[in-house]
UniProtKB/TrEMBL annotation, chain A:
CDD domains: TM_PBP2. It holds the Pfam family BPD_transp_1. The keyword Cell cycle does not apply. This is ABC transporter permease. It comes from Paenibacillus agaridevorans.
From TrEMBL, chain B:
It comes from the Bacteria. The lineage of its organism: Bacteria, Bacillati, Bacillota, Bacilli, Bacillales. Belongs to the binding-protein-dependent transport system permease family. InterPro entries: ABC_transporter_permease (IPR051393), MetI-like (IPR000515), MetI-like_sf (IPR035906). The keyword Membrane applies. The chain crosses the membrane at residues 27-47, 91-113, 125-146, 176-201, 222-243, 283-303. Coiled coil: none annotated. Keywords: Cell membrane, Membrane, Transmembrane, Transmembrane helix, Transport. GO terms for biological process: transmembrane transport. This is ABC transporter permease. It is found in: Cell membrane. Pfam families: BPD_transp_1 (PF00528). One of its GO terms (cellular component) is plasma membrane. It comes from Paenibacillus agaridevorans. Residues 87-304 form the ABC transmembrane type-1 domain.
Length: 278, 315
Protein backbone atom coordinates (compact mmCIF):
# COMPACT_ATOMS: atom_id res chain seq x y z
CA UNK A 1 0.00 0.00 0.00
CA UNK A 2 2.14 2.87 -1.21
CA UNK A 3 0.69 6.30 -1.47
CA UNK A 4 2.14 8.83 -3.81
CA UNK A 5 4.72 11.23 -2.51
CA UNK A 6 2.89 14.49 -2.03
CA UNK A 7 3.44 17.87 -0.48
CA UNK A 8 2.42 16.36 2.85
CA UNK A 9 5.21 13.82 2.54
CA UNK A 10 7.73 16.58 2.04
CA UNK A 11 6.38 18.30 5.13
CA UNK A 12 6.60 15.10 7.20
CA UNK A 13 10.16 14.42 6.10
CA UNK A 14 11.18 18.00 6.84
CA UNK A 15 9.80 17.54 10.36
CA UNK A 16 11.72 14.32 10.90
CA UNK A 17 14.94 15.87 9.67
CA UNK A 18 14.38 18.99 11.76
CA UNK A 19 13.80 16.83 14.83
CA UNK A 20 16.94 14.82 14.21
CA UNK A 21 18.99 17.96 13.57
CA UNK A 22 17.76 19.61 16.76
CA UNK A 23 19.20 16.66 18.65
CA UNK A 24 22.39 16.17 16.67
CA UNK A 25 23.41 19.66 15.70
CA UNK A 26 24.04 21.11 19.19
CA UNK A 27 26.22 18.09 19.94
CA UNK A 28 28.18 18.39 16.71
CA UNK A 29 28.51 22.14 17.22
CA UNK A 30 29.88 21.71 20.74
CA UNK A 31 32.23 19.01 19.46
CA UNK A 32 33.84 21.14 16.78
CA UNK A 33 34.01 24.18 19.03
CA UNK A 34 35.83 22.01 21.55
CA UNK A 35 38.65 21.60 19.02
CA UNK A 36 39.25 25.33 18.57
CA UNK A 37 41.21 27.83 20.62
CA UNK A 38 39.22 30.34 22.66
CA UNK A 39 40.31 33.14 20.27
CA UNK A 40 39.01 31.29 17.21
CA UNK A 41 35.78 30.58 19.02
CA UNK A 42 35.30 34.21 20.05
CA UNK A 43 36.06 35.48 16.54
CA UNK A 44 33.63 33.32 14.66
CA UNK A 45 31.44 30.58 16.09
CA UNK A 46 30.82 29.10 12.63
CA UNK A 47 34.36 28.67 11.35
CA UNK A 48 35.83 25.19 11.45
CA UNK A 49 38.86 24.71 13.67
CA UNK A 50 42.11 25.60 11.86
CA UNK A 51 44.20 23.10 13.75
CA UNK A 52 42.56 20.47 15.94
CA UNK A 53 43.19 21.45 19.55
CA UNK A 54 42.94 18.02 21.17
CA UNK A 55 44.92 19.56 24.00
CA UNK A 56 41.65 21.18 25.19
CA UNK A 57 40.62 17.74 26.40
CA UNK A 58 43.80 17.37 28.38
CA UNK A 59 43.31 20.84 29.87
CA UNK A 60 39.74 19.99 30.85
CA UNK A 61 40.87 16.69 32.34
CA UNK A 62 43.41 18.45 34.56
CA UNK A 63 41.59 21.73 35.26
CA UNK A 64 38.27 20.22 36.33
CA UNK A 65 39.82 17.19 38.04
CA UNK A 66 37.91 14.89 35.69
CA UNK A 67 40.26 11.97 36.28
CA UNK A 68 39.60 12.03 40.01
CA UNK A 69 35.87 12.63 39.63
CA UNK A 70 35.56 9.77 37.14
CA UNK A 71 37.28 7.48 39.65
CA UNK A 72 34.83 8.65 42.33
CA UNK A 73 31.96 8.06 39.92
CA UNK A 74 33.27 4.59 39.08
CA UNK A 75 33.45 3.71 42.79
CA UNK A 76 30.00 5.10 43.53
CA UNK A 77 28.25 3.79 40.42
CA UNK A 78 30.11 0.47 40.35
CA UNK A 79 29.46 -0.59 43.93
CA UNK A 80 25.88 0.76 44.04
CA UNK A 81 25.19 -1.07 40.80
CA UNK A 82 26.54 -4.43 41.96
CA UNK A 83 25.04 -4.35 45.45
CA UNK A 84 21.80 -2.78 44.26
CA UNK A 85 21.22 -5.17 41.37
CA UNK A 86 21.98 -8.22 43.53
CA UNK A 87 19.63 -7.07 46.29
CA UNK A 88 16.90 -6.10 43.82
CA UNK A 89 17.04 -9.51 42.13
CA UNK A 90 16.96 -11.36 45.43
CA UNK A 91 14.15 -9.17 46.63
CA UNK A 92 12.11 -9.55 43.44
CA UNK A 93 12.41 -13.33 43.69
CA UNK A 94 11.29 -13.37 47.31
CA UNK A 95 8.39 -11.02 46.69
CA UNK A 96 7.06 -12.50 43.45
CA UNK A 97 7.77 -16.26 43.59
CA UNK A 98 7.61 -17.22 47.23
CA UNK A 99 4.32 -17.40 49.12
CA UNK A 100 4.53 -16.25 52.70
CA UNK A 101 2.49 -14.54 55.35
CA UNK A 102 2.75 -10.77 55.20
CA UNK A 103 3.68 -10.60 51.52
CA UNK A 104 0.61 -8.54 50.66
CA UNK A 105 1.42 -6.12 53.46
CA UNK A 106 4.99 -5.66 52.22
CA UNK A 107 3.75 -5.06 48.66
CA UNK A 108 1.26 -2.53 49.95
CA UNK A 109 3.94 -0.63 51.82
CA UNK A 110 6.19 -0.66 48.76
CA UNK A 111 3.34 0.58 46.56
CA UNK A 112 3.04 3.60 48.86
CA UNK A 113 6.23 4.89 47.27
CA UNK A 114 4.27 5.61 44.08
CA UNK A 115 2.30 8.25 45.93
CA UNK A 116 5.25 9.89 47.65
CA UNK A 117 6.79 12.77 45.74
CA UNK A 118 10.10 12.16 47.48
CA UNK A 119 11.09 15.78 47.23
CA UNK A 120 9.81 16.75 50.69
CA UNK A 121 11.82 13.85 52.10
CA UNK A 122 15.13 15.43 51.08
CA UNK A 123 15.55 17.32 54.35
CA UNK A 124 14.73 14.54 56.85
CA UNK A 125 16.83 12.20 54.72
CA UNK A 126 19.74 14.61 54.96
CA UNK A 127 19.33 14.88 58.74
CA UNK A 128 19.18 11.08 58.97
CA UNK A 129 22.33 10.68 56.89
CA UNK A 130 24.04 13.32 59.02
CA UNK A 131 23.09 11.48 62.21
CA UNK A 132 24.44 8.26 60.70
CA UNK A 133 27.63 10.15 59.77
CA UNK A 134 27.19 9.24 56.13
CA UNK A 135 27.34 12.74 54.63
CA UNK A 136 30.29 13.93 52.57
CA UNK A 137 31.10 10.30 51.83
CA UNK A 138 30.87 8.30 48.63
CA UNK A 139 30.31 5.19 50.72
CA UNK A 140 27.38 6.94 52.37
CA UNK A 141 25.89 7.61 48.94
CA UNK A 142 26.39 3.96 48.00
CA UNK A 143 24.49 2.90 51.13
CA UNK A 144 21.72 5.38 50.37
CA UNK A 145 21.33 4.23 46.77
CA UNK A 146 21.85 0.46 47.11
CA UNK A 147 19.31 -0.31 49.80
CA UNK A 148 15.77 0.43 48.79
CA UNK A 149 12.80 -0.67 46.76
CA UNK A 150 11.80 0.32 43.28
CA UNK A 151 8.37 -0.60 41.99
CA UNK A 152 9.59 -0.35 38.39
CA UNK A 153 12.42 -2.84 38.91
CA UNK A 154 10.26 -5.17 41.00
CA UNK A 155 7.60 -5.34 38.32
CA UNK A 156 10.15 -5.73 35.55
CA UNK A 157 12.03 -8.58 37.26
CA UNK A 158 8.88 -10.04 38.74
CA UNK A 159 7.42 -10.28 35.24
CA UNK A 160 10.46 -12.23 34.09
CA UNK A 161 10.44 -14.57 37.06
CA UNK A 162 6.73 -15.27 36.96
CA UNK A 163 7.03 -16.46 33.37
CA UNK A 164 9.34 -19.30 34.48
CA UNK A 165 7.50 -22.62 35.13
CA UNK A 166 7.04 -23.65 38.78
CA UNK A 167 8.21 -27.20 37.96
CA UNK A 168 11.78 -25.94 37.63
CA UNK A 169 11.99 -25.15 41.30
CA UNK A 170 9.96 -28.17 42.40
CA UNK A 171 12.20 -30.67 40.65
CA UNK A 172 15.27 -28.94 42.06
CA UNK A 173 13.84 -29.26 45.57
CA UNK A 174 13.19 -32.98 44.88
CA UNK A 175 16.86 -33.37 44.10
CA UNK A 176 17.66 -31.85 47.48
CA UNK A 177 18.65 -28.36 46.44
CA UNK A 178 18.31 -25.60 48.99
CA UNK A 179 16.35 -22.45 48.31
CA UNK A 180 19.62 -20.51 48.00
CA UNK A 181 20.88 -22.93 45.35
CA UNK A 182 17.60 -22.71 43.46
CA UNK A 183 17.91 -18.96 43.40
CA UNK A 184 21.56 -18.83 42.35
CA UNK A 185 21.65 -21.78 39.93
CA UNK A 186 18.19 -21.69 38.36
CA UNK A 187 16.28 -18.46 38.82
CA UNK A 188 19.09 -15.94 38.48
CA UNK A 189 20.52 -17.43 35.26
CA UNK A 190 17.08 -17.71 33.66
CA UNK A 191 16.18 -14.16 34.63
CA UNK A 192 19.43 -12.78 33.18
CA UNK A 193 17.75 -10.67 30.47
CA UNK A 194 15.67 -8.95 33.14
CA UNK A 195 18.65 -8.52 35.42
CA UNK A 196 20.68 -6.96 32.61
CA UNK A 197 17.85 -4.51 31.87
CA UNK A 198 17.68 -3.58 35.54
CA UNK A 199 21.45 -3.14 35.68
CA UNK A 200 21.46 -0.89 32.60
CA UNK A 201 18.77 1.36 34.04
CA UNK A 202 20.46 1.43 37.40
CA UNK A 203 23.69 2.42 35.68
CA UNK A 204 22.05 5.28 33.79
CA UNK A 205 20.20 6.45 36.89
CA UNK A 206 23.32 6.36 39.06
CA UNK A 207 25.66 7.91 36.51
CA UNK A 208 23.16 10.69 35.81
CA UNK A 209 22.31 11.21 39.48
CA UNK A 210 23.06 14.81 40.28
CA UNK A 211 20.95 15.91 43.21
CA UNK A 212 22.12 13.40 45.85
CA UNK A 213 25.86 13.80 45.15
CA UNK A 214 25.33 17.55 44.99
CA UNK A 215 23.61 17.61 48.39
CA UNK A 216 25.83 15.10 50.16
CA UNK A 217 29.33 15.68 48.84
CA UNK A 218 30.92 18.88 50.08
CA UNK A 219 34.56 17.96 49.63
CA UNK A 220 35.81 18.74 46.12
CA UNK A 221 38.00 15.64 46.13
CA UNK A 222 34.88 13.49 46.40
CA UNK A 223 32.85 15.04 43.56
CA UNK A 224 31.25 12.78 41.01
CA UNK A 225 31.47 13.77 37.37
CA UNK A 226 28.08 15.51 37.36
CA UNK A 227 28.92 17.72 40.34
CA UNK A 228 32.39 18.40 38.93
CA UNK A 229 30.90 19.64 35.65
CA UNK A 230 28.35 21.75 37.52
CA UNK A 231 31.17 23.41 39.45
CA UNK A 232 33.17 23.85 36.24
CA UNK A 233 30.25 25.76 34.77
CA UNK A 234 29.98 27.92 37.89
CA UNK A 235 33.67 28.74 37.44
CA UNK A 236 32.97 29.95 33.89
CA UNK A 237 31.55 33.20 35.20
CA UNK A 238 35.07 34.26 36.12
CA UNK A 239 37.27 32.66 33.46
CA UNK A 240 35.20 32.34 30.26
CA UNK A 241 37.33 29.47 29.13
CA UNK A 242 34.74 28.11 26.74
CA UNK A 243 36.56 25.53 24.68
CA UNK A 244 37.78 23.72 27.79
CA UNK A 245 34.26 23.54 29.21
CA UNK A 246 33.02 22.17 25.86
CA UNK A 247 35.67 19.48 26.02
CA UNK A 248 34.75 18.70 29.64
CA UNK A 249 31.04 18.30 28.88
CA UNK A 250 31.86 15.97 26.00
CA UNK A 251 34.09 13.83 28.24
CA UNK A 252 31.22 13.63 30.76
CA UNK A 253 28.95 12.40 27.95
CA UNK A 254 31.21 9.55 26.80
CA UNK A 255 30.01 6.88 29.28
CA UNK A 256 26.36 7.63 28.43
CA UNK A 257 27.09 7.45 24.72
CA UNK A 258 28.87 4.11 25.12
CA UNK A 259 26.01 2.68 27.14
CA UNK A 260 23.53 3.85 24.55
CA UNK A 261 25.50 2.51 21.60
CA UNK A 262 25.99 -0.93 23.14
CA UNK A 263 22.66 -1.39 24.89
CA UNK A 264 20.41 0.76 22.72
CA UNK A 265 17.89 -2.01 22.06
CA UNK A 266 17.70 -2.99 25.75
CA UNK A 267 17.32 0.61 26.84
CA UNK A 268 14.58 1.45 24.37
CA UNK A 269 12.63 -1.77 25.06
CA UNK A 270 13.07 -1.45 28.80
CA UNK A 271 11.84 2.14 28.70
CA UNK A 272 8.60 0.99 27.10
CA UNK A 273 8.10 -1.72 29.70
CA UNK A 274 8.22 0.96 32.35
CA UNK A 275 5.82 3.15 30.45
CA UNK A 276 3.19 0.51 29.90
CA UNK A 277 3.32 -0.73 33.46
CA UNK A 278 3.13 2.87 34.64
CA UNK B 1 39.48 -35.06 72.10
CA UNK B 2 37.70 -38.22 71.10
CA UNK B 3 34.66 -37.09 72.97
CA UNK B 4 34.64 -33.84 71.08
CA UNK B 5 34.75 -35.59 67.72
CA UNK B 6 31.95 -37.81 68.82
CA UNK B 7 29.91 -34.80 69.76
CA UNK B 8 30.37 -32.98 66.48
CA UNK B 9 29.63 -36.10 64.49
CA UNK B 10 26.38 -36.44 66.33
CA UNK B 11 25.57 -32.80 65.87
CA UNK B 12 25.92 -32.74 62.08
CA UNK B 13 22.90 -34.80 61.07
CA UNK B 14 20.82 -32.90 63.54
CA UNK B 15 21.89 -29.53 62.17
CA UNK B 16 21.33 -30.69 58.63
CA UNK B 17 17.91 -31.85 59.50
CA UNK B 18 17.16 -28.48 60.97
CA UNK B 19 18.41 -26.68 57.87
CA UNK B 20 16.56 -29.05 55.59
CA UNK B 21 13.31 -28.35 57.25
CA UNK B 22 11.88 -26.42 54.38
CA UNK B 23 9.98 -23.90 56.44
CA UNK B 24 13.00 -22.75 58.42
CA UNK B 25 15.08 -22.53 55.29
CA UNK B 26 12.42 -20.48 53.58
CA UNK B 27 12.23 -17.99 56.42
CA UNK B 28 16.01 -17.61 56.57
CA UNK B 29 16.02 -16.98 52.85
CA UNK B 30 13.18 -14.49 53.10
CA UNK B 31 14.92 -12.64 55.90
CA UNK B 32 18.09 -12.50 53.88
CA UNK B 33 16.31 -11.50 50.67
CA UNK B 34 13.86 -8.93 51.95
CA UNK B 35 15.55 -7.19 54.86
CA UNK B 36 18.25 -5.21 53.01
CA UNK B 37 16.00 -3.77 50.30
CA UNK B 38 12.86 -3.36 52.36
CA UNK B 39 14.75 -2.13 55.41
CA UNK B 40 16.58 0.43 53.28
CA UNK B 41 13.27 1.54 51.84
CA UNK B 42 11.72 1.95 55.29
CA UNK B 43 14.75 3.82 56.59
CA UNK B 44 15.74 6.03 53.65
CA UNK B 45 12.39 6.60 51.93
CA UNK B 46 9.39 6.02 54.15
CA UNK B 47 10.77 7.34 57.41
CA UNK B 48 12.00 10.65 55.92
CA UNK B 49 8.67 11.11 54.15
CA UNK B 50 6.80 10.75 57.42
CA UNK B 51 9.29 12.92 59.25
CA UNK B 52 8.88 15.78 56.79
CA UNK B 53 5.32 16.26 58.05
CA UNK B 54 6.70 16.60 61.57
CA UNK B 55 9.57 18.85 60.51
CA UNK B 56 7.10 21.21 58.89
CA UNK B 57 5.82 22.03 62.40
CA UNK B 58 9.24 23.09 63.65
CA UNK B 59 11.31 26.19 63.60
CA UNK B 60 14.73 24.72 63.02
CA UNK B 61 17.87 25.80 61.19
CA UNK B 62 19.25 22.27 61.33
CA UNK B 63 21.86 22.94 63.98
CA UNK B 64 20.34 24.52 67.08
CA UNK B 65 17.54 22.88 69.08
CA UNK B 66 14.29 22.68 67.11
CA UNK B 67 11.35 24.67 68.43
CA UNK B 68 7.83 23.34 67.96
CA UNK B 69 5.71 26.10 66.42
CA UNK B 70 2.59 24.25 65.32
CA UNK B 71 1.12 25.49 62.06
CA UNK B 72 3.05 28.75 62.10
CA UNK B 73 5.11 27.72 59.04
CA UNK B 74 1.94 27.13 57.06
CA UNK B 75 0.61 30.54 58.01
CA UNK B 76 3.89 32.10 56.86
CA UNK B 77 3.71 30.04 53.70
CA UNK B 78 0.31 31.36 52.68
CA UNK B 79 1.56 34.91 53.10
CA UNK B 80 4.85 34.24 51.32
CA UNK B 81 4.58 35.83 47.89
CA UNK B 82 7.66 33.88 46.71
CA UNK B 83 5.79 30.62 47.20
CA UNK B 84 2.92 31.80 45.02
CA UNK B 85 5.28 33.14 42.40
CA UNK B 86 7.09 29.80 42.35
CA UNK B 87 3.76 27.97 42.11
CA UNK B 88 2.78 30.18 39.18
CA UNK B 89 6.00 29.22 37.38
CA UNK B 90 5.30 25.58 38.17
CA UNK B 91 1.85 25.89 36.65
CA UNK B 92 3.34 27.36 33.48
CA UNK B 93 5.79 24.46 33.20
CA UNK B 94 3.08 21.99 34.14
CA UNK B 95 1.01 23.15 31.20
CA UNK B 96 3.57 23.86 28.48
CA UNK B 97 6.09 21.06 29.00
CA UNK B 98 3.55 18.20 28.77
CA UNK B 99 1.69 19.93 25.95
CA UNK B 100 4.79 20.36 23.79
CA UNK B 101 6.24 16.95 24.62
CA UNK B 102 3.01 15.14 23.80
CA UNK B 103 2.20 17.07 20.64
CA UNK B 104 5.70 16.74 19.21
CA UNK B 105 6.11 13.09 20.15
CA UNK B 106 2.65 12.18 18.85
CA UNK B 107 3.46 13.83 15.55
CA UNK B 108 6.87 12.19 15.23
CA UNK B 109 5.51 8.81 16.31
CA UNK B 110 2.70 9.09 13.77
CA UNK B 111 5.10 9.87 10.93
CA UNK B 112 7.50 7.11 11.91
CA UNK B 113 4.80 4.45 12.31
CA UNK B 114 2.59 5.19 9.35
CA UNK B 115 4.80 6.58 6.65
CA UNK B 116 7.59 4.03 6.45
CA UNK B 117 10.15 6.53 5.25
CA UNK B 118 13.73 5.46 4.90
CA UNK B 119 15.73 5.57 8.12
CA UNK B 120 12.90 5.07 10.60
CA UNK B 121 15.07 3.07 13.07
CA UNK B 122 17.76 5.75 12.77
CA UNK B 123 15.32 8.53 13.68
CA UNK B 124 14.00 6.54 16.62
CA UNK B 125 17.50 6.15 18.04
CA UNK B 126 18.40 9.81 17.49
CA UNK B 127 15.20 11.10 19.09
CA UNK B 128 15.70 8.85 22.09
CA UNK B 129 19.34 9.76 22.66
CA UNK B 130 18.85 12.87 24.89
CA UNK B 131 16.98 10.65 27.37
CA UNK B 132 20.19 8.90 28.40
CA UNK B 133 22.04 12.16 29.08
CA UNK B 134 22.34 13.51 32.61
CA UNK B 135 20.53 16.70 33.58
CA UNK B 136 23.88 18.44 34.03
CA UNK B 137 24.92 17.67 30.45
CA UNK B 138 21.52 18.67 29.06
CA UNK B 139 21.48 21.89 31.06
CA UNK B 140 25.03 22.83 30.06
CA UNK B 141 24.32 22.13 26.38
CA UNK B 142 21.38 24.51 26.59
CA UNK B 143 23.43 27.07 28.47
CA UNK B 144 25.76 27.02 25.44
CA UNK B 145 22.80 27.45 23.11
CA UNK B 146 21.36 30.38 25.05
CA UNK B 147 24.56 32.31 25.71
CA UNK B 148 24.28 35.96 24.71
CA UNK B 149 27.65 36.56 23.05
CA UNK B 150 28.61 33.18 21.64
CA UNK B 151 25.50 31.04 21.96
CA UNK B 152 24.24 28.87 19.14
CA UNK B 153 20.79 30.46 19.13
CA UNK B 154 21.93 34.07 18.72
CA UNK B 155 24.52 33.01 16.15
CA UNK B 156 21.85 31.27 14.12
CA UNK B 157 19.54 34.28 14.35
CA UNK B 158 22.40 36.48 13.14
CA UNK B 159 22.96 34.06 10.27
CA UNK B 160 19.41 34.54 9.03
CA UNK B 161 19.72 38.31 9.42
CA UNK B 162 18.16 38.88 12.84
CA UNK B 163 20.65 40.63 15.05
CA UNK B 164 19.38 41.01 18.58
CA UNK B 165 22.79 41.91 19.95
CA UNK B 166 24.14 40.18 23.03
CA UNK B 167 20.83 39.02 24.38
CA UNK B 168 21.18 36.65 27.33
CA UNK B 169 18.09 34.47 27.10
CA UNK B 170 18.59 33.05 30.59
CA UNK B 171 19.66 36.34 32.09
CA UNK B 172 16.63 38.42 31.18
CA UNK B 173 13.48 38.36 33.27
CA UNK B 174 11.30 38.46 30.15
CA UNK B 175 12.63 35.27 28.56
CA UNK B 176 14.34 33.18 31.25
CA UNK B 177 11.14 31.43 32.33
CA UNK B 178 10.29 30.41 28.77
CA UNK B 179 13.85 29.47 27.92
CA UNK B 180 13.73 26.72 30.55
CA UNK B 181 10.95 24.89 28.66
CA UNK B 182 12.86 23.75 25.52
CA UNK B 183 15.55 21.82 27.45
CA UNK B 184 12.82 19.82 29.22
CA UNK B 185 11.05 19.15 25.93
CA UNK B 186 14.29 18.31 24.14
CA UNK B 187 15.27 15.79 26.81
CA UNK B 188 11.81 14.22 27.09
CA UNK B 189 10.35 13.82 23.61
CA UNK B 190 12.28 10.70 22.52
CA UNK B 191 10.92 8.53 25.30
CA UNK B 192 7.33 9.31 24.38
CA UNK B 193 8.02 8.83 20.66
CA UNK B 194 8.94 5.23 21.48
CA UNK B 195 5.97 4.75 23.83
CA UNK B 196 3.48 6.17 21.32
CA UNK B 197 5.00 4.24 18.41
CA UNK B 198 4.58 0.99 20.31
CA UNK B 199 0.99 1.91 21.03
CA UNK B 200 0.30 2.83 17.40
CA UNK B 201 1.77 -0.39 16.04
CA UNK B 202 -0.84 -2.39 17.97
CA UNK B 203 -3.73 -0.70 16.12
CA UNK B 204 -4.99 -3.24 13.58
CA UNK B 205 -4.14 -2.36 9.97
CA UNK B 206 -7.61 -3.40 8.84
CA UNK B 207 -9.09 -0.32 10.52
CA UNK B 208 -7.00 1.95 8.37
CA UNK B 209 -7.68 -0.09 5.22
CA UNK B 210 -11.44 0.11 5.59
CA UNK B 211 -11.17 3.81 6.39
CA UNK B 212 -9.21 4.36 3.18
CA UNK B 213 -11.86 2.44 1.22
CA UNK B 214 -14.46 4.75 2.64
CA UNK B 215 -12.40 7.69 1.47
CA UNK B 216 -11.06 8.99 4.77
CA UNK B 217 -8.21 11.45 4.39
CA UNK B 218 -4.97 10.89 6.31
CA UNK B 219 -6.01 13.66 8.69
CA UNK B 220 -9.37 12.04 9.42
CA UNK B 221 -7.64 8.71 9.97
CA UNK B 222 -5.28 10.34 12.46
CA UNK B 223 -8.01 12.13 14.38
CA UNK B 224 -10.68 9.41 14.22
CA UNK B 225 -8.64 6.24 14.56
CA UNK B 226 -5.09 6.73 15.78
CA UNK B 227 -5.55 9.32 18.49
CA UNK B 228 -8.66 7.85 20.16
CA UNK B 229 -7.10 4.39 20.25
CA UNK B 230 -3.86 5.44 21.89
CA UNK B 231 -5.56 7.92 24.22
CA UNK B 232 -5.13 5.71 27.35
CA UNK B 233 -1.35 5.72 26.82
CA UNK B 234 -1.33 9.46 26.13
CA UNK B 235 -3.22 9.94 29.36
CA UNK B 236 -0.65 8.04 31.38
CA UNK B 237 2.10 9.99 29.63
CA UNK B 238 0.42 13.30 30.39
CA UNK B 239 0.08 12.39 34.04
CA UNK B 240 3.76 11.50 34.29
CA UNK B 241 4.80 14.70 32.56
CA UNK B 242 2.54 16.89 34.69
CA UNK B 243 3.81 15.37 37.93
CA UNK B 244 7.40 15.44 36.63
CA UNK B 245 7.28 19.12 35.73
CA UNK B 246 5.78 19.96 39.12
CA UNK B 247 8.47 18.05 40.99
CA UNK B 248 11.48 18.60 38.79
CA UNK B 249 13.90 21.41 39.40
CA UNK B 250 17.33 20.08 38.47
CA UNK B 251 17.50 21.84 35.10
CA UNK B 252 16.37 25.10 36.69
CA UNK B 253 18.90 24.70 39.49
CA UNK B 254 21.75 24.23 37.01
CA UNK B 255 20.64 26.73 34.36
CA UNK B 256 19.55 29.73 36.46
CA UNK B 257 19.18 28.67 40.10
CA UNK B 258 15.85 30.49 40.05
CA UNK B 259 17.26 33.76 38.74
CA UNK B 260 17.29 36.41 37.40
CA UNK B 261 15.48 38.02 40.33
CA UNK B 262 13.51 34.85 41.05
CA UNK B 263 11.87 34.86 37.62
CA UNK B 264 12.43 31.11 37.11
CA UNK B 265 12.03 29.93 40.70
CA UNK B 266 9.89 26.82 41.18
CA UNK B 267 8.57 25.32 44.40
CA UNK B 268 11.00 22.42 44.48
CA UNK B 269 13.92 24.76 44.00
CA UNK B 270 12.58 27.25 46.55
CA UNK B 271 12.39 24.42 49.08
CA UNK B 272 15.84 23.17 48.10
CA UNK B 273 17.44 26.58 48.55
CA UNK B 274 15.70 27.12 51.89
CA UNK B 275 17.25 23.89 53.12
CA UNK B 276 20.57 23.60 51.30
CA UNK B 277 21.10 26.98 49.65
CA UNK B 278 23.96 29.39 50.14
CA UNK B 279 22.10 31.75 52.47
CA UNK B 280 20.21 31.00 55.66
CA UNK B 281 18.78 27.55 56.35
CA UNK B 282 15.33 26.85 57.66
CA UNK B 283 14.53 23.14 57.70
CA UNK B 284 11.15 23.65 59.30
CA UNK B 285 9.84 26.15 56.81
CA UNK B 286 11.43 24.29 53.90
CA UNK B 287 9.59 21.13 55.00
CA UNK B 288 6.32 23.06 55.10
CA UNK B 289 6.98 24.17 51.51
CA UNK B 290 7.73 20.52 50.66
CA UNK B 291 4.41 19.42 52.18
CA UNK B 292 2.68 22.16 50.22
CA UNK B 293 4.22 20.76 47.02
CA UNK B 294 3.00 17.30 48.05
CA UNK B 295 -0.56 18.64 48.32
CA UNK B 296 -0.25 20.42 44.97
CA UNK B 297 0.91 17.14 43.41
CA UNK B 298 -2.08 15.26 44.78
CA UNK B 299 -4.46 17.92 43.46
CA UNK B 300 -2.74 17.92 40.07
CA UNK B 301 -3.06 14.15 39.87
CA UNK B 302 -6.77 14.27 40.66
CA UNK B 303 -7.40 17.04 38.12
CA UNK B 304 -5.36 15.31 35.40
CA UNK B 305 -7.21 12.07 36.03
CA UNK B 306 -10.54 13.80 35.79
CA UNK B 307 -10.13 16.13 32.84
CA UNK B 308 -8.10 14.09 30.42
CA UNK B 309 -10.82 11.73 29.23
CA UNK B 310 -10.39 8.30 30.65
CA UNK B 311 -12.98 6.45 28.63
CA UNK B 312 -11.43 3.85 26.39
CA UNK B 313 -12.49 3.59 22.77
CA UNK B 314 -13.21 0.32 21.09
CA UNK B 315 -14.01 -0.44 17.49
Amino acid sequence: MTEKRSLADVLWIVMLVAGALSVLYPLVWVFYQSLKTNQQFFQNVWSLPETLQWSNYKTAWVKYGIGKSLLNTLYYVGLSLIIGTFLTTLNAYALTRIEFKGRKLIWGIIMLSLFLPGINALIPQFVLMRDLQLTNSLTGLIILDSFGESVFFLLLLGGFMQSLPKELEESAYMDGASIFQVFLRIIAPLATPGIVTVAIFKFLGLYNNFLAPFIYLSDQKKYTIGVAMYQANQLMQYTSDWVTLFAGVLIAMIPSVFMFVFFQRWIMEGATLGGVKG
Amino acid sequence: MNNMKQLTRNAIPEREGWLRSKQTQKWIFLLFAITPAFGGYLLFTLYPNLMSAYYSLLNWNGISDPVFVGFQNYVTLFQDKYVWRALFHNLIYMFFVPAFVILISLLLAYILTNKNYKGTPFYKVIFFFPNVLSSVVVALLWAFIYDGSFGLLNSMLRLVGINIGEYYWLGEIKTALWAIIPPYVWAGVGFYVIIFMNAMVTIPKSLYESAILEGATPMTRLVKITIPLIMPIVRVGALFLVLGSLKGFEHVLILTNGGPAGSTDVIGLYMFNLAFGAEYHNYGYASAVGMFLFIVLVIAKLITDKYITSQTVEY
